[in-house]
Queue: 4 jobs
Job 1
Amino acid sequence: MKKLLYFILIISLNSFSQTVKIDTLHLYKSEQNTSPLDKLIYPIFKTGNKKIDSLINFDLKNKYTYNEAPNSSINKTLKQWIGDQIGYINFNITYNRNNIISFNIETEGCAAYCTYWKSYFNYNTKTGKPIKIDSLLKLNNFKQQILNKKNEQFENEIKQLKELFKQKDIDKNEYDWVYEYLNKCKNDEELGDFSLNENHIEFIETCSLPNAIKNMTPAIDLKYKYNDIREYLNFEPSTKIENYYNHTNHLEIVNIDNESIKIDLMISNEKCAMPNYEGILSKSKENFYEGFVYSDKGEIFESKHHLKIIKNNETIQISSNDSYEKWQLGAFCRIEGKYKKN
């Protein structure tokens, strides 16, 4: 049996919030074969909360591998599932903000035929649970609009199919075969997978045809810009970001919702021991937020510190219940004080 090697590279894939991080699990089929032609990389999510991490990563592992080994570790399950047939795995993060992570995993496997597919996933990074579309959209009226757009495109595909038959580019058997699949997909009123992106949401219409007629697979486009469907949204897709500065520090505040904010505190003084802190603060009263921030020195969330923020128009005031000694920043570094809005 071939041996799989595992390598972890930590990368940050979210420019708006650094709280959710993604580890890249690199897989090679053998010690000798590390060719990029056999690209096998898989995401591991790090929220800073081990319970949430476990909920997301194990649910993803089981969904992605079709419950290959539901009680086994991620590494063991992937090794068993990949075997000698999976030759390509890659992932793309399409949305990572507002307690939502949306991404897809591309896979190619070869047996009698080589098959490529893309799987879509959406998780709430605050609860660790998969997100259902009806929690993001008011579907009562909007669903029919989606189905109408889908049906219109399938009708166009069927029209083109009839033209091919008319021009004798395909025979009657192939026409009937393709038509049967197109008509079945057209009449399916269930919404399948969806993907959140920076500016739009996309509904994934997968009309799978057998290999012999796969070249006739329809291309159905069901993308909707957030600005065009705001009346149906149950969430705010864009994020308000505020930047504050004092003489050495930069504080970025990301407004999550009415009750919490994410912060990224960057200390510009190179003499400081810990240049970056990040975390989520909860609102205790109007313009008053409190919680904990964490430093990162190559390991995720290594140290924990209390922080309070009071917002006042164009300035904020930062204080902490932790002593100066506990922060261990160095003689020239301070967190507390007044910051001005940029």
Job 2
Amino acid sequence: MAGVTNLPFRLLVKEQGVGLVFTETLSARGIVHGSEKTFKMALGTPEERPLAAQLFGSDPDLLAQAAGILESRGVDLLDVNLGCPVSKFARSFAGAVLMREPEKVRKILTAIRRRIRIPLTVKMRSGWDAQSINAPEVARIAEQCGVDAISIHPRTRAQGYSGQADWRVTAEVVKAVRVPVFGNGDVTTPERARRLRDETGCAGIMIGRAAMGNPWIFSQVREYLETGHVTRAAIDPEARRSLMRRHLAALIAFMGEEGAAVRVMRKHLSWYTKGLPGGAQFRDAINRLDSRQCVEETIECFFERLRTGRGADLADPPDRDVAPLVNGEDFNEPACEDYAG
């Protein structure tokens, strides 16, 4: 996921028993032209192996060249994005736009398959819109081109992330090909993961948005699929607080610039606290901070209020034995002067 599955996030979810992690979506053009930013997004470590690099683009030769470069740099698997619905991809005729051009997909996958020896996979959508559901057709083309597995998010590009994922399309793709098919879309609980597997016959489960702020979902799903129950259905506040701080520290170390890392971390902190008492006020405060110290103090204050049962009323000043982080009496005031105005 662009802007989410960087190295620190991948390492955190790997701790939860994930079998395969993917880089952020990488520009084929950026790889070929030697973009330092793009190569950093592809940076991996032994702890997260196997690592899949996901490429986007529309030029078969450029994609094949980028795939070869990534293979030479040690990625374990190459995934081609045929599913991203965002406008940025559409403008460059990449992502889900390619579902409208099956023969273009054939050229792309044929060129890449000729260039690399590592496993090749594709991630696709149901089709462009409700009138052009063609995932089974594109899946068959991908198989003919030599892909080793297929992932399907059964929404159309027109849907974006609205409505419901139509798992019936996933089942059709499973029947259309012999290679493994991984189901994706609306897998928000362990129970839904098993339903997806049972209803579609898919070989595996891919989880994306449901892991944002909830990396524990992977260990929960794995346990449920293996045993039929989940030992740790609810995540206690201390585990949540600890992971938030670890994530922040890892992101700062990875990015090398505190302010930039804090700004990226804001969305993760918002996801981690979604649904918790006082979470909306916490997110309002966090989104105006730019320093690690201020963010860590705000995290500590938030969880202290949860512990003492005051999480829903953040207008009260924090206890004096908690790091003071407010100017005056309102939690929503920024803790430091270096907040983003």
Job 3
Amino acid sequence: MYVEFQQLIAFLQNKKILIAGFGREGKSSFDFIQQYAPSAQIVIADCVNLKVDLDGIPVREGKDYLAFDDSFDLMLRSPGISMMDIPQDWILSGKLSSQTDLLLRFFSANVIGVTGTKGKSTTTSLIFHILSTNGHRVILAGNMGLPFFDQIAQAENKWIVAELSSHQLETVKASPSVSVLLNIFPEHLDHYLSFDAYAAAKWNIARFQHQNDFLFLSRQLFAEAGSLLKELDCGQRIMFGCEKSKNSSFVAIVSEKLELQFGSVDAVVDCDWKKIPLRGVHNRVNIAAAVGASVTAGVTPENALDAVYSFQPLPHRLEWIGDINGVGFVNDSISTIPQSTI
């Protein structure tokens, strides 16, 4: 076992752990703890009748599945459980955690994290593609790919490229060493008390960064979050988009060129947009973010852009279906909010 993995196992050993939510991530947590931290005591809680035999493991089910005392040491909350459903004294106890929280607590130095209301799956997949195409050892995980605990034993000396939803970021106490925040639009408000609460969860991707970490912010967020950025003691801030910045570090796609200027990086790369498989101006912004994040991992700007040319776009995102009687059909069904549809 490598050092970070050993530290995670030592943290879990001998604890009484409540696994809240027994879907894909909850089952992953259960299997991981059973295998690597067998001295831990597990309690399962879920709002549905699980109808499974867990060999004597205590299970609490039904609508009152969280209505008991907080005698546990650690609660591993599945992302689908709203914080509004968790007793307030549990929240204040400091016992709330998750697979995402533990990933960032113990492995943040190797994590490139991506969040945003829209574009995060494409950007995460693109970073993974750029790194793997250029020979880096890399894992795709988080909101896409396998749960973190299913892959962490094999993550030694690998980059972990993680798509992070607001639900996953709500309870974290650490941030990735390379963070990408694409945009924040109103969504999932049934899960939050307010839009501000939703936005605050997104900003956790940068809130706990260290001085030498990297935060890539879209130009729009850079402009909107001036006062918040002054409060955050986050990493090096790099703006990305379709315009250069005179006063800050940036990654910008301007006309037929990709320009990068941050840290020791100062590069201009010619782009052949006919070879870019991603449609739309918004995807040029995503490309700028992905290339910038990949450069921090050691890929040259030229090699990063070359990898973009071979990327296969994800389905349901301006996906070309075909031409029928001169009418083009595009599947853009992932656009579930006005900002991504217009």
Job 4
Amino acid sequence: MLDYLIVGQGIAGSVLSWQLLKAGKRILVINNKDTNQASQVAAGIYNPITGRNLVKSWLADELFPTLLRFYKELESILSVNFLHPKPIFRPFINDEERALWEAKVSDDGYKVFCLDSREAYKKWHGFDHDGGFFIQQAGYVDVPLFLAATRTYLQAKGCYIEADFDYSKLDLSRGYVEYQGLQPTKIIFCEGAQATQNPFFSYLPFLLVKGELLTIKPAKPLDIIYNRSVFILPKSKDQALVGATYNWDDLTLTPTKEARHVLEAKMHKLLRIPYQILSQQAGIRPATFDRRPLIGLHPEYPQLGIFNGLGSKGVSLAPYLAAEFVQYLLYSKELPVEVRLDRIR
């Protein structure tokens, strides 16, 4: 007996698979790894404080303790290191931002995520700025490594099939789900951008966005994440990622000269040391009209569900929201109103 058939093994499908396994459920994942382009090229940064007004990310107080526990537990199970806690350094843009940050540091609701500004980082490692501030409980997940380790684990447990999902083979006519001889209790679609082609969920208001990254080789090693209009993420002693762009019109997977020029122009305002561009990657993020995920069961076919729309914050949103979705599936606990499908009119 199969409890859940999960379609897609990007960040959403992988995290949901782990949460269902943890709940003792029998799962099978169907995935074509070549279609998970956004997850495969994702930088995987998690950052609790964002935006011009330096506000906490939505659900930050729940998300960040959960994600740290979740990924650390999986590292232990898989004997693979893909979680990399690192402070994020954000240069001050002006005196007003400096004053705003000093106020945040003294705010009880922000203290857990804040470190005092450090003038010692002025001109540090070739970065050009007039001081700045540090954000803690931040870092990145090596997403390709996490996905590969999860796939290997699922394969070893007989819970993974490498294949395209054929919607035409899905039979709901007898009141239960049947797909190519399988009869799961439910099918959960975690397809990322492919959801726009899903005949059952294409009505949802996805707002797909193309993102591009550069891989660079800086002349000096970097050891923390920098964020000021672009991020510069050290991945190894001699490589770093620079990103990202947002393009709602060109939804091809072809890297563009325009995106490269935009990233380099922004990087030049921050980085003052030589570097070499090694490669450029593109992916399509499954964003939504209101920047909130789309989670729940189909209004007409409750045997079908969706866990999608995590956008650029998949590594931080997925652990907490997947756990919430499992509670909903198993015990009918209400989902957060911001992610429910019935908000779509």
